[in-house]
Design brief:
- With 343 residues, the protein is an all-alpha fold.
- It is 84% helix and 0% strand.
- The chain is built from 11 helices and no strands.
- The N and C termini lie far apart (52 Å).
């Protein structure tokens, strides 16, 4: 006897097609919800990849002068990094920590002076609201400088990024082959080429960032120290660290520097303005264009938009990783475009 159709059986082809489409959209929504739920761990993993690119770049550079195994070259790069951090903590840590404790008070006092000057010259300023904003900004600066003075602290996120970065950098091919194994055979060669191009772009982008951070930080420190500006070491370090954030890092570091300068004297404040303009004129017109020729030439508006999104969703970590993420997405889209044109 013929079996009767059950209530769950679907024989209508149109209804079957609609059911499949609904299943695809439900699966996509579930995948997006899972990614959103795991967003922070995924971001830490990506941060480990970025840190690995820094180690890998130093390892490759060292390979040009030392013909030794890759593991030993990576160990040398890590040893120099740790030695630099220890030197900073031992010889400059106490000075920077003391300056960091004073910086929020200086910023707050100078901001109130600016508000009083604006009000005295006819500007309509809601002092209660303005004072609240200044206090919040000073608190944020205090958190930033506290993070700087405790840079080698055992934060879970930083520790995870560093450990993952070391593992990725020591044996990158192992993890690349492992991920490629999850893909169909027909996609593995394309994935390998794309991953290689992404790694190449990321290494150069990070090398450019380090070059810009070093130039801005050292130049600011030396020039401010030569003039006798208070907190020159801390201002140089903050300028170098904030240079990692294109578009928004420079105005923040410049505003802090200028406020500290005017807290000493008018001439010192004017000198800080000149230092800010000089350093960023050199960096923006010489260093950045030179680096952009050899790295991912990213549109500033796209980077700023991604920084706003990532900063809102994930805070400082998202803000720091927005630029590398845009570079990786750009490489993936360019590779896919070339593949479509070739296919």
């Amino acid at each position: 006897a013929a079996q009767l159709a059950g209530p769950a059986d679907i024989h209508d082809p149109v209804l079957r097609g609609e059911f499949k489409r609904a299943a695809v959209w439900i699966g996509l929504a579930a995948a997006l919800a899972l990614v959103a739920y795991l967003a922070r761990p995924l971001l830490i993993i990506f941060g480990g990849m970025v840190f690995a690119a820094l180690i890998d770049g130093g390892t490759r550079l060292l390979g040009r002068v030392l013909n030794i195994d890759r593991v030993w070259r990576a160990a040398i790069v890590l040893a120099f990094t740790v030695a630099f951090l220890l030197w900073t903590a031992m010889f400059a840590g106490s000075q920077i920590a003391a300056q960091a404790a004073l910086l929020p008070e200086v910023i707050q006092a100078q901001s109130f002076k600016v508000l009083d000057w604006l009000q005295a010259h006819g500007a309509v300023v809601n002092m209660k609201t303005a004072q609240s904003l200044v206090e919040r900004a000073a608190g944020a600066i205090g958190e930033l400088t506290s993070a700087v003075s405790n840079l080698i602290g055992g934060l879970t996120t930083a520790f995870g990024i560093i450990v993952l970065g070391i593992y990725f950098a020591l044996e990158p091919q192992l993890y690349q082959r492992g991920f490629a194994w999850l893909l169909p055979m027909s996609q593995r060669a394309y994935f390998a080429d794309t991953a290689q191009q992404m790694g190449h772009t990321l290494r150069r982008l990070m090398a450019g960032r380090l070059a810009g951070m070093t130039l801005e930080g050292l130049a600011t420190w030396l020039l401010l120290g030569w003039w006798g500006v208070p907190m020159a070491a801390l201002l140089g370090l903050l300028t170098g660290l904030l240079a990692f954030l294109p578009n928004i890092g420079a105005p923040i570091s410049g505003a802090i520097m200028i406020l500290v300068g005017f807290s000493d004297s008018t001439s010192t404040g004017l000198f800080c303005i000149l230092v800010y303009l000089f350093v960023h004129l050199i960096d923006g017109n010489i260093v950045v264009p030179l680096i952009a020729k050899h790295t991912a030439d990213l549109a500033p508006a796209v980077v700023l938009g991604m920084q706003l999104i990532m900063g809102t969703l994930f805070g400082l970590l998202g803000l720091m990783l927005a630029d590398p993420l845009v570079a990786m997405i750009k490489v993936a889209l360019e590779r896919q475009s070339l593949r479509n044109e070739g296919g």
